Amino acid sequence: MPDSNPTTTATDESADATEPPASGTNRAEITVETDPREERVEEPLLEIRNLQLEFETHEGTVHALNGVDLDVYPGEIVGLVGETGCGKSVTARSVLGILDDNANILGGEITYRGTDLLTLSEAERRELRGDQIAMIFQEPMKSLNPAFTIEDQLTTVIERHTDRDSSAARARALELLEDLGLPDPEDVLESYPHELSGGMAQRVLIALALSCEPDLILADEPTTALDVTIQAQILDLLVDLQEKYDTSVLIITHNLGVIDRVTSRVNVMYAGSVVESGPTGRVFETPLHPYTQGLVEAIPMPGRDELSGIDGEVPDLDDPPAGCRYEPRCPVSEEHCKTYDPPMTVVSDPETPERREVRCIHYEPDQPGDPGVVLDE
Amino acid sequence: MSGERSFRARLRTAYGDWYRRNDARIEEFRRRSGQIRRNPASFLGLLIIAVFLVVAALAPVIAPFDPNTTHLSATFESPSFVHPFGTDNLGRDIFSRVIYGAQTSLKVSAIVVSVSLALGVPVGLFAGYSGGWIDEAVMRFADLFLGFPPLLLPLAISLALGGGLEIAALAIAITWWPWYARIARSQAVDIREEDYVTVSKGIGVGTPRILRRHVLPNGAAPILVQASMDVGYAILITSSLSFIGAGANPPTAEWGLMIASARSYFLAYWWTVTFPGLAIFTTVLGFNLFGDGLRDVLDPKLSRR
Amino acid sequence: MKLRYFVARRLVLTVFVLFGISVITFLLTHTVPSNPAALWAGSHATQAQIDQAAQQLGLNKPLYVQYFDFLMGVLRGDLGTSIRTQQPVAQDIVQFLPATFELVMVSMFIAVAVGIPIGVLSAKRRNTAADHSSRIFAMSGVSIPVFWLGMLLQLLFYSHFGLLPLQGRVTDAVVAAHPLSKITGFVLVDAVIQGNVPVFVDAAQHILLPAVTLSYASLAIITRMTRSSMLETLEEEYMTVHDAFGLSDRQMTYKYALKNSLNSVLTVLGLSFGYLLGGSVLVESIFSWPGLGRYIVRSIYATDYPAVMGVTLVFAAMYILINLLVDVAYAYLNPRIRSQGGSA
């Protein structure tokens, strides 16, 4: 079973210390009446609440996001995992505001440092891009402009957001490439993208993301297009750099192994909304949502005789189910699930002080206002 | 009695069979023609082409006057009810001449396109399918023809062969077949990698049959698009050749020739050049619009020339 | 692959094509049904005179010998003698080429300077009124007969408005009053070099209509090509990346997108040059522009074979060389292409 990531944040400890158990009974039966968010000292860097989005296409309207809730706290590496098409990339691009023209945001908020990005003007959002929030893209060879050198592409961004002049920008670019472990950074600067290997190009993309020292990095499938051997290198590099630059990273991937390797918290996404979130180790050990359970079951492991999968298919998003979107495939679904789409519910886990949430009718308290569900030992 | 019924019944089954066998194709055709109809530009093109074809076919019926009869007393009359396009330097009715010009143009462009296709497509398909040195050799040979600027080679050939409208048409076709050979060749190169071709080869199907039944139908799309626009371009080039004297000879009612004849006096008599030119422009535009729409329908991914 | 190697390869190919062109031209000149000797001797010649002409022209020798002579002649710069002007064709060509070249260059300039910006704008404002009108304009450009367009413009700007001259390259009176010495052979350039403003203005007025007429079709093609190329480029992932890092719209369009789009446009430029050469035949005829185009038309009316073939050969050679230059430029701008051996 995967271990929990040892780099827990300081907030865990402080949460214990500040708020005594409400009912005074032993920890195994803690019920949560106060909002555990208040236990966390820091404000989240990024708060996405109930983000809803649709795309207008020739074939109809695709309801891509169905109320996404997601937090990223300062200094952490958080995962966003889900199948292809579940909306993870779309969510990240909404944060930056670089969606296609046919995308419509129907509702929700994307709060960054207290400001709802959706209320900002295009010019204001443009200022943030690259400077405070940066993205690492998936396919390095397609993400770099083939007609310009690496130097040009790096320095243009650096000069855009910082006060450096061209020689200082170049020096900074060189420094970044060194940080990323590229041999012959001078050579790389003078090269064109097609002259680099996939791994090198991905490092350039990471350098690009770090170039203006953003507070938040959205890494969209940063290793998917690379060879397996390189993937591990890049991931470890990301962890080191995150610590060095003290940024937060949201890693988007469909690969559970990646999540396990680098993240401390994970959000599981399905068909347009986050269905479960919590500390990585605990989510893998004790998955709450039926989908997460299916995912974890499906991991091939030594000792398992059979490969299992999840029956059924991802719903067609131009005509999604009315209620819970997982219902058609859910082994424990109920009649009510067909018409009822539950909100995120907090669940208390005795094994960890960190918050765990899940979007499933089975974890909702019987009456609103009742204490939340508690997991058994 | 029963014989009649069985005849009708047989007819019905015959057609019914045909419908069933071609159901998918009919559906496809309907869908695609619908697309053309919906696109306003290509629909306009289709209309223009239709008008052109009708006028060309029914010229003797539609034209109010004989195109070659001169009326030296009625020269340079400005447009009127009797002569909607006016008369030219020999008193001929320009409206009628424009109508007969459509017939001339249709004849010429038909020759040009069909000869080019007949020469170019088989050569191109064969070259592309065979690959190797045959492909190289044929393509280099085709490149020779493409090395001449557009008007010049037809000009030179036409002149060398004596001039005249049919000669000019032939000259243009000789210059054009390499374009089709090229397109056909690149289609063949793409298609020869397809599985159904490999399978056919494997079970021993001969090359001509493969070319005919597999390569040609699947590769036809860009060729058709090009051909439909080329009907227009053929008219454009023939009229250009006629204009400089290497095409139609007087007194043929050919649009380019009509404009050439009016060169000395058009400044004073604007209608002598405006209407023939308008005819060329409209007709070519029609074929272009239609061809463009056809391209979008048949394959939106086709690269633009 | 190094650029040098690429250029060498293309040069060899070009020489091959030039050879082929000379063969075609030769065949047209020497194997026509009509009798060149009779033509040369004139319409009232006796049979003996015709035979003598045939002897002179070397028509009795076997075909390949004739070709060899022809080729040697071409390489020496001898393209035969014009029946009409009685001068060596090569000399005529040298005399009339600058005027055509100037016209073609100005037209090319117009096509590019107007076509590319319109194409870019059209791509950025896709499916708006501006886009649709530019597409209609482009479509009309390739549908309109260039000689008719010229005449219409003459009707409009000379006959009706009286704004621009009807024909010719300069007004004799103006040149007489402000003499111009011939340095490059290009009136506009020479006038600028010598600071001769009146002649420059006059020449500019004269070249305006012909150049606009000639450029129209190429303008249309370049606009279309720029538009579609830009649209393709704007779909690319790297454009999203540029956007994700907050680059300005202007920087993204005019620096990053344009450079990628211009590749296709460059290819079209080579093709356009051919259109311009071919079109110059028609345009010069209408505007009485004293260039090779008008020369060739007059040669046609006089069935002056040597002249027609000579000019055709020269035009073709120019066209092929320009395309070679375009290919080399393309390879220079695109290091990736070099290793693939260049365009087919």
What's the architecture of the domain at 89-300 in chain C, going by CATH? Orthogonal Bundle
Q: Cα-atom Rg of chain C, whole angstroms?
A: 24 Å
CATH secondary-structure class of the domain at 89-300 in chain C: Mainly Alpha
Query: What oligomerization state is this entry in?
Result: heterotrimer
Uncertain ranges of chain B: 301-305
**Average pLDDT across residues of chain C?**
83
Helix content of chain B: over 70%
Span of the ends, CA to CA of chain C: 16 Å
Which percent range describes the beta-strand content of chain C?
under 5%
Query: What name is given to the CATH topology of the domain at 89-300 in chain C?
Result: MetI-like fold
Following the backbone from N to C, one meets helices and strands of chain B in this order, namely HHHHHHHHHHHH
Largest interface: B-C, 47 and 54 residues
Q: What gross morphology of chain C would you assign?
A: globular
Task: Tell me what the structure shows.
The complex is a heterotrimer of chains A (377), B (305) and C (344). Chain A is α/β, with parallel strands linked by helices. Chain A has twelve helices and twelve strands. In chain A, the strands form two sheets. An eight-stranded mixed beta sheet of chain A has the order 6-7-8-3-9-10-12-11, sandwiched between helices. Chain A has a four-stranded antiparallel beta sheet with strand order 2-1-4-5, with helices on one face. The longest helix of chain B is centred in the C-terminal third of the chain and has 38 residues, at 207-244. Chain B has 305 residues and is mostly helical. With 344 residues, chain C is mostly helical. Chain C has a domain at 89-300: Orthogonal Bundle (MetI-like fold). In chain C, helix 5 packs antiparallel against helix 12 (249-287) and helix 9 packs across helix 10 (197-234). Residues 339-344 of chain C have low confidence and may be disordered. Chains A and C meet through helix 3 and helix 5 of A and helix 11 and helix 12 of C.
